[in-house]
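Complex 362.
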Amino acid sequence: MKVNFVDLRAQYLSIKPEMDAAIAGILESCAFVNSKSFEKDFAEYLGVKNVVGVGNGTDAICMAVHCLGIGPGDEVICPANTFIATAEGIGWAGATPVFVDCDPLYYNLDPAKIEAAITPRTRAITAVHLYGQPADMEPIMKIAKEHKLIVIEDCAQSHGATYNGKKCGTFGDVACFSFYPGKNLGAYGDGGAVATNNDELATQIRKLGDHGSNVKYRHDFEGINSRLDGIQGAVLSVKLKHLDTWSDRRIAVAARYGAGLKDVCKVPTTAPGRRHVWHLYVIQVNNRDEVMKHLNDQGIGCGIHYPVPLPVTPAYAHLGYGAEQFPVACGTADKLVSLPMHADLTDEQVDFVIAEVKKVAK
Ligand SMILES: *Cc1c(COP(=O)(O)O)cnc(C)c1O
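Predicted structure with pyridoxal-5'-phosphate bound:
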């Protein structure tokens, strides 16, 4: 039985008529260069005042950090275990990422380890809701308030997740979303957005992404070109209507994996008060290479998120970190395996994956 890690084709086929009509509508209207209608839909969905579409999730982080006035000489707290884009956004804005280890249960930024990393140069904390599980926002917001720090949420993996009933992306000063095709809410190409209740910040980010301009050919500063195009906006508006149903299915798949695998390997769990939207289902095994080879041989897609923690990635060698400073992120990196996770998985496919993992996992 073939089980794809993600299955964008199955998802497309499940919504083909409405998707084809939405894309055709953009082709007819030729409204290619912005996505105002999706911005409005997504702002309503999140319950925030402003959503600004940008070119991709990495741009969203770079642009947010820059427009918050964070740059050279500033430090920004960043989890050790995340995709490099979180740290890239900080670095490209001219600031320095300061890595903090994750907690061993949920793999998110460990609030107990944040304060030791704060210096007089610290300006912000990036809270990543990794794998679709909300970071522990209550202590993070408390620390930020005490130390007068900005909070930037990286919501690239957590569309629709909630923490104590409140949507991820509505806690911090600004939230950054990716709509990379494989994300829980994915475009048919690159896309991203910034969400914020701060009108001035939203205007600045919109201008930055449109050549420093919000009036044609009046350029108030040197910007860049980073916008969410019309076709992607139309695609995302169609998918947004299905997002909560898809998340429910991901949650059911995770529960089925958990029940089937909890006695076999370390399975991921959801912290109290969270709606975890399971962008990734990451188990820990002691014989990862063997497990991955076996799964691949059976036609089961799997991945590693992430094989090399950021502090020990070549791109950050100049910061001089050692693996021993990040016992959780660096101690688990060679045990993590991500199993197939998407809303179109059937129970039969999930059971097949469970059975095959059981045969090899140690
Ligand atoms: C995917 C991702 C990003 C970057 O998004 P792109 O749209 O690919 O640039 C940022 N942060 C995290 C945690 C991600 O998973």
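Residues 243-261 form the longest helix (19 residues).
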